[in-house]
Amino acid sequence: MRVALLVLLLGACAQGTSKDTADTADGTVDSDPTGPGTQDGVTAITCFPDRDGDGAGAGEGYTATTPCPRRTPLEGAPWVRTGGDCDDRDATIFPGADELCNGLDDDCDGETDEALEGGTWYRDFDGDGFGADGTQGVQGCKPAAGWVDRAGDCWDLDPETHPGHADDCEAGDLQVDNDCDGTASEDGWQTFWQDVDGDGYGGKTALTARACSAPSGYRSTNTDCNDSDPDVNPGEWERCDTVDHDCNGSPKNGGIERQLWYDYDGDSWGTGTAILACSTRTGWVTRDGDCDDYASGTNPGATEICNDLDDDCNDGIDEGFAKSTWYRDADSDTWGTTATTKSTCRTSVSGYVKRSGDCDDSTSTRHPGLTEVVGNGIDEDCNPATGP
Fold first, then answer.
1. Residue 127: which region, alpha, beta or left (left: phi > 0; alpha: psi -120 to 50)?
2. CA distance 8 to 301
3. What is the tens place of the pLDDT at every residue in 195-210?
4. Where are the domains of the chain?
5. What pTM value is reported for the model?
6. Is there a contact between 63 and 42 (Cβ–Cβ < 8 Å)?
7. Cβ distance 335 to 367 under 8 Å?
8. What confidence tens digit (pLDDT) does each residue in 332-347 have?
């Protein structure tokens, strides 16, 4: 039984080998799956190796009979009847694939990212969302890293400089056009004038500097009419001489020299050290004697009232008013002590009473009028005659 089966198998193999390797009469190769050729009367096809398994092969292929061989001898890749794969190492790239926005020829038609909606992209070196001004954009369906869809950056190495940015003016700013509108630092950039004499005012014809804040030795005004004399500027007092000290164009200001005192409380009476001036100035007055220049109701012209103050600055307090003596009542027992008194015209004084005689103002259990407790050694009624 075993011998018969072996004979049948060997016969079948011999027949298959004879058919697959026989040559035709015209010298072409038969249907050997590993090489080119045709069988007599059989239609030839072109087969391509498909290394990435996407259904499309690459290369020139070879002619074979139907069907194509299943695998190539060396790489083991399948053979397919569709060729034209422009990247047979990537299964997503083959003829008929959808074109994607990726910089590749996905459908192998010789074009990259064709028929995809895109735009113009500009290189953005400083990452502020604006490409360099005046540069030519690149067309594409999407930007690469570092590319944006708008230009106009006038300084593409500084992220604080681009259209729409505030045109800052900071200390040390070098007149940068932060918003790229063609005007440098128009928000806050100022002109300053040199103050040669150091009196706080820049000279009318002094050197100037453009900056965000005043450089050392420079001022924001140029109203000093003589920047070589610190006693001449718009803040000075006018003296009665031939010099225009306050820079108003008129020496002496048409006046005569007089003394002026500063009036802090605005009651037209001043105090302190007088100055000599040829004209009055705001805050200064021509009379002094104010004994409290922080209270406008106190000055030599005020009316004296009953308030324990020297209202008219004559060194007298509440003169012209009847006064009475009040006694300190520390223990609030309505009896005061003669040790502390106050003379005033007031009808009431906090902490004081009009009757005295309290012999111990630290306790309310001792004062005139209390009943004496015999034998306790304490003088409750402050009357030595009744005794403790």
1. left
2. 149
3. 999 999 999 988 998 7
4. 45-116, 117-182, 322-388
5. 0.36
6. no
7. yes
8. 999 999 999 999 999 9
